[in-house]
Structures are given as structure tokens and as C-alpha cells.
Write a structure and sequence with these properties.
Layout (H helix, E strand, L loop, with lengths): L1 E5 L7 E4 L10 E9 L3 H6 L10 E2 L4 E8 L11 E4 L2 E2 L5 H4 L10 E2 L11 E4 L5 E3 L5 H4 L7 H10 L8 E5 L3 H13 L4 E6 L2 H9 L4 E4 L4 H8 L5 E6 L4 H10 E9 L19 E4 L5 H12 L7 E4 L4 H9 L6 E4 L4
Helix pairs in contact: 4-5, 7-8
Bound molecules: zinc ion (2 copies).
């Protein structure tokens, strides 16, 4: 089978033939028909993610059709449309047992620690990592595994702070913010959604996605948010950037008993002390999501409440997709379709 593999950091992936291995008991071989390309791949390629062992087939957001099942695999058969949940936990620690495999210290991450889905086939070690897709095409499901699930969990964690008439702020309308705005509109209990970005095209996009207010982050965004909320401040701020500037905005824009959710990797810090934030304001982060949360994301997509903006690319174009992403030229969500 063909696979796109990284042999050296800061080098293009090599498309090569890899001999398929035997499908063992409990395993499933998935024919990959959609693999969403995430910016984390750029961090893997540049060597910025620790403990990556090469060579490695990248691709952590994979969906397709069951090709072959090993012995003792109930409920799945050849031809079933499936999404592959990409964090394979130990299955027996406290976090795994409560469904939070993304928090397991032993989780093997597809496309990071084990070979991923920029390939014609993907070996999945257990059927329990598969989710049947009854209402979505694999290509449409692939981006949801990452930029759907991550903001979904983050938004869900903010919900206890929100109520009808309150306001939730999404800072940054990149791919995570793109879904955060839609998900907040879809599942918040009547909170209005305020999107902040420094690019006008992204603010226009946020309006199209349902944001009630859009604010240019280059201006006095905190004052604007205070004005919109009658002086109280927002009840939730999800910062998908997390630079010093955006975290400063988050802390200036929240109200009492609000929540600031860190969801970006820009590496900024936020001073925290008893009086630094309004009373009982919660400061936390959110990491990817659970299998059940992924099912909920798929349900929202099947209902048409959240939508991706997908552009398909054949496997041979993977390196061009990465260069487009590096230059910021890719506005759509890129999905590799290895069989086209
Ligand atoms: Zn990712
Ligand atoms: Zn575990």
C-alpha cells in the first residue's frame, strides 16, 4: 500500500510502498478515504513535538471503510463506514475507564506515536477505537475528529457558566475557532456569541457562521465586549490563540463566575492571583475530547448544525498541502483522499 512517511525532520514526506501486515485478532484494517491535514503535522515535521520516532506515517484524523476484520471483532464488517478515534489509551487506568482516553498517560496517538492515515490503509489495533458513520461520509467526518472534537469539549466545559442573555467570546477564527463559533451557537443555552480576530475576512466568516457580534482584535476589544455585556463582561472566553495579547484580552473581558478556556498553543502566560481576575472566575484548559463527545460532534454534523469547508487533495499532493499551510494560503480544511 502507498503511504506518506517522514524520514527526516524538516524534509518532505516520502510517498512509498509499504508492505501491509497481517490483521491480528481484534484488529481492523481500515481503507482510508479521508484524512484531515492538521497544522500539528507541521510541528511534527519541524521536530517541535518531543518523542517522535522516525520513520513515521503522519495523519491523525482518519476515516474510511472497513477493509478487513481480525478474529473476535463483533459488529464490524467489510464495507462499514467508520471514523478512527485517534487516541488509543491503555483501557484500564482511571481516565480510560471513565472514557477520557485523551488524558491517559499511556495513550498512543495515531500519526504521532504510531503510523497514521496518510496512507491507503490504516491498522487499528482494536475495534473499540472505531465509530460507525451512519449519516456522514468519511471525508466529511475526518476534520471533525480534530477541529470539531477539540472545540466541542472546550465549549461543553464552559456551559455551566452560561445562561440565556449571557455572552461567550471566541478569540481567533482559525480552524478551531471556525467550529467553536458554530458549536457554541448550536449547544449554548441562549448565550450570544462574540468572535474576535485580527483579520477582516475571518470576522466576515464568523458572522456567516452565526456569531452575533464580531470584534476586530486590533482595536479596544475588551471595551467593546464590556459594552455589549452591559459592563458585566463575558461569562466564557475561549482563547484559541493564547498569546500574551489574547490572554490579556481574555482576562480583561470576563465577568464574575466566568470561565477562561485556554485552547491555543501560542505559549503566552496569564498572571493569576486572588485579585487578578473577577471573583470566582475559573481558568482552565481543555484537551481534545472523548469518544462519546466525538459521537456528539458527529450528531451535530449529521443534523447540519456544524459544517466544514473541505478541499480534497490526493495523497501525492501532501507536501504541497503542507507548504500551502505554512504560507497561510489554505483557507479551506484540507482532506487527503488516498484513493483519488
Ligand atoms: Zn490535530
Ligand atoms: Zn489509560
Amino acid at each position: 500500500m502507498k503511504a506518506a512517511r517522514l524520514y527526516q525532520f524538516n524534509e518532505p514526506l516520502k510517498i512509498e510502498e509499504v508492505a501491509p501486515r497481517q490483521v491480528k485478532s481484534g484488529e481492523v484494517l481500515v481503507k482510508v478515504t479521508g484524512a484531515y491535514v492538521c497544522t500539528s503535522d507541521l510541528d511534527i515535521i519541524s521536530g517541535h513535538i518531543p518523542e517522535i520516532k522516525l520513520p513515521l506515517t503522519l495523519g491523525h484524523n482518519n476515516a474510511g471503510y472497513v477493509e478487513q476484520v481480525g478474529q473476535d471483532v463483533p459488529d464490524f464488517k467489510k464495507g462499514d463506514a467508520v471514523a478512527v478515534f485517534g487516541g488509543w489509551g491503555c483501557g484500564s487506568c482511571r481516565f480510560c475507564r471513565q472514557g477520557e482516553e485523551q488524558l491517559c498517560s499511556l495513550t498512543r496517538w495515531v500519526g504521532f506515536g504510531v503510523d497514521g492515515g496518510y496512507a491507503e490503509y490504516l491498522h487499528v489495533p482494536s475495534y473499540r477505537h472505531l465509530m460507525k458513520l451512519d449519516k456522514l461520509e468519511p471525508v466529511d467526518a475526518a476534520p471533525l475528529l480534530d477541529i470539531g472534537l477539540t472545540p466541542y469539549r472546550a465549549v461543553k466545559l464552559t456551559l455551566p457558566h452560561l445562561y440565556p442573555g449571557s455572552a461567550a467570546v471566541i478569540i481567533g477564527v482559525g480552524n478551531i475557532g471556525y467550529f467553536a463559533v458554530q458549536i457554541m451557537k448550536a449547544i449554548s443555552p441562549g448565550a450570544s456569541v462574540i468572535a474576535v480576530d485580527v483579520r477582516e475576512d475571518r470576522l466576515r466568516l464568523a458572522s456567516q457562521l452565526g456569531a452575533d457580534w464580531v470584534i476586530d482584535g486590533r482595536g479596544k476589544a475588551a471595551d467593546e465586549i464590556k459594552r455589549i455585556t452591559g459592563g458585566e463582561g463575558a461569562q466564557a472566553v475561549i482563547d484559541t490563540v493564547c498569546s500574551n495579547d489574547t490572554l490579556g484580552l481574555a482576562s480583561a473581558a470576563v465577568g464574575r463566575k466566568a470561565i477562561i478556556m485556554l485552547l491555543g498553543l501560542a505559549g503566552g502566560t496569564l498572571p493569576y492571583s486572588f485579585l487578578a481576575l473577577p471573583s470566582e472566575c475559573v481558568l482552565t484548559n481543555s484537551v481534545w475530547g472523548t469518544y462519546n463527545e466525538l459521537e456528539e460532534v458527529m450528531a451535530l454534523a449529521a443534523m447540519g448544525k456544524i459544517k466544514a469547508n473541505i478541499k480534497r487533495f490526493p495523497l501525492k499532493d501532501i507536501n504541497e498541502v503542507f507548504s500551502g499551510m505554512r504560507k497561510g494560503q489554505l483557507e479551506e480544511q484540507a482532506v487527503i483522499t488516498p484513493w483519488s
